[in-house]
Specification:
The chain contains 16 helices and 9 strands. The protein is an alpha+beta fold and about 500 residues long. The strands form 2 sheets. A 7-stranded antiparallel beta sheet has the order 8-4-3-2-1-7-9. Strands 5-6 form a two-stranded antiparallel ribbon. The radius of gyration is 30 Å and the shape is globular.
Length: about 500
């Protein structure tokens, strides 16, 4: 008869093996967990979800477990047909939620329905639109608010306290410095999208200009009379832009600001063509003449209306309109207004100058829309560099005009031509991607789906060296989320401050 195996193995060896067995399990558990990024929707387009996008799509439990303390979320496929939702939180930690196949299918049905409903709601005359995306802006929001503090909040505060020189200087420094810390605190405690950054900065700058116009209309007397409306306009415009951009894409936010600028400038041009800004020798008071005040008020009202109408340009176009595209249109409109001034001499009637400049501005915007926006998609960085190219071209044109010692009209023509050539040349150098179609301000993104019905547009694979978090997220079934509504949805997120390292190939 065979002896039991326990008699064949020494007791000390068996005890040692049992003691080392947890180490063997840990060693096996430390193997890399292979994760492949996949799209949220079946079409393979939505690879990142932000709080703005989740709020617009009304994502909620049980399909969507995230609350309000996160910046962006991405989806990764794991071995065995499961998936992990990885959310970057505002405090720098990472939350990971496990999805089984059935729960992932439910999430995709909700997102597909939201994308379809949004596309139908924003359909243009020649085609429906797609999803929207505005990623977190990060420190750009802080930078823009600091700039407003230096050039809007600070000077307005100093003007309010101008009766006392020391108080005025101190008020400027306090207001400028406070703008940085308030913005930094906001970014720390919430996710601020690029759309909110764009429209908040635009609203702050235009709000300060509107405040100055209101002070001029009211014939304000003294620094406080100008400082108060400028400060109120800057703060009010910033707050209105920040809240108004919720749910907007970057292209919609930029289009909203451009709509305000174009509406206000067109109104100024039209009332100027009607004689609102003609010289009035009978008026000798301070500020604009009486008939110019209603014109400034009309321009302010038109600008406010432009903020509401502007986003429809990005929403209803049958082609993609990005924030960089709006930079191109804005620059082209300014060059168009400048170019028309080369046709007229100094003796040209002021009304004619207003009318023709307005026509040139609108023509420049239309040309950029037709020849640039419809053909390619530009990022915000592309738009900024193209604008710098236009400025460089204008400087070169001005240099040629000075060297040739030409008169005013040929000089203006050279400057405008140099700006236009610089804009086109910079755009050619940047070589933006072809237009992605009616996606409402979203640049085409790489999708690496193919699993769960998504399209396989990329073969990128991610190697994640954080197996413990993934293993716990996939394996835990005893604890649930704070507000469970379906037992099989997902486990409690695992939060870790350990840096995430991924190798994509």
């Amino acid at each position: 008869m065979q002896r039991p195996i326990r008699h064949l193995v020494p007791a000390w060896l068996l005890a040692g093996a049992l003691a080392l067995s947890p180490c063997a399990v840990l060693a096996q558990g430390s193997a890399p967990q292979i994760e492949r990024p996949i799209a949220f929707d079946a079409a393979g387009h939505v690879t990142v979800v932000t709080p703005t996008l989740a709020a617009r799509w009304k994502l909620s439990a049980p399909e969507w477990p995230l609350g309000v303390d996160w910046k962006d979320a991405r989806l990764y496929a794991t071995d065995g047909g499961a998936a992990v939702l990885v959310a970057q939180r505002v405090d720098g930690t990472v939350a990971r939620y496990a999805y089984v196949a059935g729960d992932l299918a439910a999430l995709r049905r909700v997102i597909d329905a939201a994308v379809l409903a949004q596309g139908s709601a924003g359909a243009g005359t020649r085609g429906s639109t797609g999803f929207e995306l505005s990623e977190p802006a990060g420190n750009v929001f802080v930078r823009n608010q600091t700039v407003l503090g230096l050039f809007a909040y600070g000077p307005a505060t100093a003007a309010i306290l101008s009766d006392n020189g020391a108080a005025a200087g101190g008020g400027y420094l306090l207001a400028a410095g406070t703008s940085f810390f308030v913005a930094a605190r906001m970014v720390r405690n919430r996710s601020v999208s690029r759309a909110q950054t764009i429209l908040a900065f635009h609203g702050g700058t235009r709000g300060s200009l509107a405040g100055a116009a209101i002070a001029a209309i009211a014939r304000a007397d003294g620094g406080a009379g100008y400082g108060a409306p400028i400060l109120a306009g800057a703060l009010g415009g910033t707050i209105a832009g920040f809240h108004g951009a919720k749910g907007m894409s970057d292209g919609e936010a930029a289009s909203s600001g451009f709509g305000a600028d174009l509406s206000a400038a067109t109104t100024i041009g039209l009332v100027g063509a009607l004689g609102a800004f003609d010289e009035d020798t009978s008026y000798h008071g301070d500020g604009p003449p009486p008939r110019a005040r209603p014109a400034l008020g009309a321009a302010i009202a038109a600008g406010v209306a432009g903020y509401w109408v502007g986003p429809r340009y990005a929403r209803r176009s049958a082609y993609n309109v990005t924030a960089g595209d709006i930079d191109m249109v804005f620059t082209s409109a300014a060059l168009g207004a400048l170019a028309t001034n080369a046709v007229f001499s100094n003796s040209t009637a002021r009304r004619t100058g207003f009318a023709v400049s307005t026509a040139g501005m609108l023509a420049g915007a239309a040309i950029a829309d037709r020849l640039m926006v419809r053909r390619a998609d530009r990022t915000s960085a592309d738009g900024t560099l193209a604008q710098l190219g236009a400025v460089a071209g204008m400087l070169m044109g001005g240099g040629v005009a000075i060297m040739a010692d030409v008169n005013r009209q040929p000089g203006v023509a050279l400057v405008a031509a140099g700006g236009a050539l610089g804009l086109v040349a910079a755009d050619r150098i940047l070589a933006p991607s072809p237009d992605a179609g009616p996606k409402r301000g979203v640049l085409p993104s790489e999708s690496s789906s193919g699993l769960y019905g998504g399209s396989s547009a990329s073969s990128r694979v991610s190697l994640s060296i954080i197996p413990a978090a993934t293993s716990i997220a996939l394996g835990m079934s005893g604890t649930r989320t704070a507000r469970p509504t379906r037992q099989s949805l997902m486990a409690r997120p695992t939060i870790t401050n350990v840096p995430v390292m991924r190798i994509a190939f």
